[in-house]
User: Which sequence fits this backbone?
């Protein structure tokens, strides 16, 4: 059973960089059938896709966040990471990491439990 | 970006009822449509992928249909554990986008 677990600071100051890591267990992060994604959800609101990464390092980002986002992967540690720069209160959200099934169809089939990141001074 | 619009935004129903939630895409997305269930404080859970394929382990009372721009999620006989928020999501093109959600409540 694949499991994903987010980790990182729960409080970030405005203008600083949010950094989160997702650790994958129970499966290979280097499987060619999957991408690895970050998704966020502001309190009481809907879901927003941030971006994804392939084990080779290729990425795709949401254009609304592209100038501030970097997603990286460390296959030796079975981890992928999110960095979001110049944060504001609007970036306060629960951040989820998820596995992206990417064969004939594309879907988020396994999710981490989520971690709340609050942007506040 | 492809906009996803769900209706209704909220819905009240009784245990045992048949319920249908609709999702409309702003442009054709073929069958690249997924449905998720989210309970308070929990991560979303994949129910249906590719418009009509039931994810492993999901009860058969859940079904999905549609293609192109119009899609539906049907719960054939509501159970107490089905009261949650449901989201559709298109995976036709990035940026992947979600509907605003449909909150299903007990009547």
Assistant:
């Amino acid at each position: 059973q694949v499991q994903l677990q987010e980790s990182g600071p729960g409080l970030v100051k405005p203008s600083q960089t949010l950094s989160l890591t997702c650790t994958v267990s129970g499966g290979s992060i280097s499987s060619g059938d999957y991408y690895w994604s970050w998704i966020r959800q502001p309190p009481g609101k809907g879901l927003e896709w941030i971006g994804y990464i392939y084990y080779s390092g290729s990425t795709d980002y949401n254009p609304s966040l592209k100038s501030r986002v970097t997603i990286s992967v460390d296959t030796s540690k079975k981890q992928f990471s999110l960095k979001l720069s110049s944060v504001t209160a609007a970036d306060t959200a629960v951040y989820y990491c998820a596995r992206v099934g990417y064969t004939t169809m594309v879907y988020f089939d396994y999710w981490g439990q989520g971690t709340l990141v609050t942007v506040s001074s | 970006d492809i906009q996803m619009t769900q209706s209704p935004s909220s819905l009240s129903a009784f245990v045992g009822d048949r319920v249908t939630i609709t999702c409309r895409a702003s442009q054709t997305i073929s069958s690249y449509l997924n449905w998720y269930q989210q309970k308070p404080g929990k991560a979303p859970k994949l129910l249906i992928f590719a418009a009509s394929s039931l994810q492993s382990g999901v009860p058969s009372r859940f079904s999905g249909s549609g293609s192109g721009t119009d899609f539906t999620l049907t719960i054939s006989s509501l159970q107490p554990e089905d009261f949650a928020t449901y989201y559709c999501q298109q995976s036709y093109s990035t940026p992947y986008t979600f509907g605003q959600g449909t909150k299903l409540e007990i009547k």
About this structure: The CA atoms of residues 75 and 84 of chain B lie 12 Å apart. Chain B has a mean pLDDT of 97.
